[in-house]
Design brief:
The structure is a homodimer of 357-residue chains.
Chain A lengths: L5 E3 L3 E4 L7 H6 L9 E6 L18 E5 L7 H13 L7 E6 L1 H13 L11 E2 L9 E5 L13 E3 L4 E5 L7 E4 L9 H19 L6 H18 L6 H15 L7 H13 L3 H9 L7 H13 L14 H12 L2 H8 L3 H4 L2 H10 L1
Parallel strand pairs in A: 2-10, 3-4, 3-5, 5-7, 6-9, 7-10
Antiparallel strand pairs in A: 8-9
Chain lengths: 357, 357
Amino acid sequence: MATFRNFKVVPQVIFGRGSFNQLDDILSKKRSNPNDRVVFLADDVFEHSDFKNRIPLRPDDLLIWVNVNDEPKTKYVDALRDQVRNSSSKLPAGIIGIGGGATMDLAKAVSLMLTNPGSSADYQGWDMIQTPAVYHVGIPTLSGTGAEVSRTTVLTGPQKKLGINSDYTVFDQIVLDPELIAGAPNPQRFYTGMDCYIHCIESLTGTYLNAFSRAYGEKSLELCREVFLGDCADADDRLMMASYFGGMSIAYSQVGVCHALSYGLSFVLGLHHGIGNCVAFDYLEEFYPEGVREFRQMMAKHGISLPRNLTAGLSESQMEKMTDVALVLEPLWENALGKNWKKVMTRERIRELYQRM
Amino acid sequence: MATFRNFKVVPQVIFGRGSFNQLDDILSKKRSNPNDRVVFLADDVFEHSDFKNRIPLRPDDLLIWVNVNDEPKTKYVDALRDQVRNSSSKLPAGIIGIGGGATMDLAKAVSLMLTNPGSSADYQGWDMIQTPAVYHVGIPTLSGTGAEVSRTTVLTGPQKKLGINSDYTVFDQIVLDPELIAGAPNPQRFYTGMDCYIHCIESLTGTYLNAFSRAYGEKSLELCREVFLGDCADADDRLMMASYFGGMSIAYSQVGVCHALSYGLSFVLGLHHGIGNCVAFDYLEEFYPEGVREFRQMMAKHGISLPRNLTAGLSESQMEKMTDVALVLEPLWENALGKNWKKVMTRERIRELYQRM
């Protein structure tokens, strides 16, 4: 008997230009008394911006500027968790992540690690979290990753790049305010948007797909095309919806070859997820011919040129490690290539693909 | 400052052919001990079917066959609530609705009225429920109404046809199994599907729309076209997704002229919601020209002929009542016709529209 995932959906969604202004009101309902402490984890790109003053801090709240120059590491999550713990003997009433996918992942992970013992590295995998997280809210300021709806928080640990996949990871509330993504600089906006585009191509051509994920994936892809090949006035609104739909489509689908290879690039080269996907995708025409051609049109329209020859100087052990990181992601390979994927995708073939990048 | 609805989304969704088989497993997690009582409200069309034996009853569970030949009435909700209460001194661990929109609405209403005092007629309106409902699950066996995701349960009371609109109305879990809608007879399947189609036309042409609701509405409309004008093998899967997306699109949109008039028809003539919508929509070419033309193509393809001259024999007071029921639905008129809708849509004009039907 086939079994289907009982998909955990973010239960509260607010969408609209200016909806960020309702954050204080939303949080006040979660503070049992008005001075209950809330912890904000915000991307430090906003530390010296006007936006900083719009964060609805109350006297006992804690605002931590997080740095995501590197992809989130388990060590960083543990340190942030300790910082929150050391600042008060009481659990916070909420953890609020404001930023791109990396910042939202940090917020998810910290909210989980405040109620679960040990290091976040102990939970990299599937359904290992035992205790519900602290109430946590995601507020994207970049769109494309789908981190606002996903049941994972992607972390780089001492051994692997792998998410904490759990229903408890899912945000309790998201605030989708298209005004917040308007300021993202072009290359970063493009790479993050392509995370969504590539993810849709991978899931729509995958073997796991059903009508639920297809409906979300097809609409997300359409929105990506409107945003990156069209010319629409409300592109930020559409990109935000593309990301949300892309994330929802993962319910009964998976990403594929590109995401698997991109994980290896990130682990060994420290490449950010969005750009890592783009670097890998450009070499995957044999797997995703139409998708790669359209992706190149999008790159041309947005004046993007990708870094090249990234793996040329790597040592033997680095190449091996990169291959290991990619190979461990079995569901991705199975989705892309079917149950017999191991016959198609050998270590040698992965390595050969990496050598071109 | 514009404020946006903080939209309550059904937090657990399972979608797939055969996913109904996982119901016992899902419910077992909600029973604190294995014999905790669950109450099933199932459409009595299944009373003598094989499907009956697939309902995962445990020894202390209560299975109530509900009759929805008439649209759900507040009196019926109160009687069902009393029946559940009188059968045990403990609140049930869950209320499970299995059927079309009417049955799902009964399940939602009973789950609310088990924890809120008085009659369900006292709560017809917006945000009047004070106490969370008993855990409740929706399992559609007909698709189109969007009742599986909506925050309303539409009831006919002594004074009005109006929903109990509340975040607490929203199901805690839905089971979307396309196999369950395969047996619906053609006219009923068509009328219910058209509830979704018409709803999309009304919301996509309305004044309330934003990018969130547009994305859901557009995809829902596309799926409706594939199902009712196309020829696809997985039509049941797509129809189920059309209904889900149509319901989600209501977050930041509203229905319009057709639904408002249809409510009046149901109240006075006892017409079911789906057929009521179809009867009204066929006379609304001036408001929805393209939608009505496409709707007629769908009717032709599916061999549907609508009842006519329904209002010819009505008394003066019945015509007045019908007009009153339609006029009270202010958000629907405002969405369709803008803030100054009262100048456009007078009592006389509504009456004139009804007289043609």
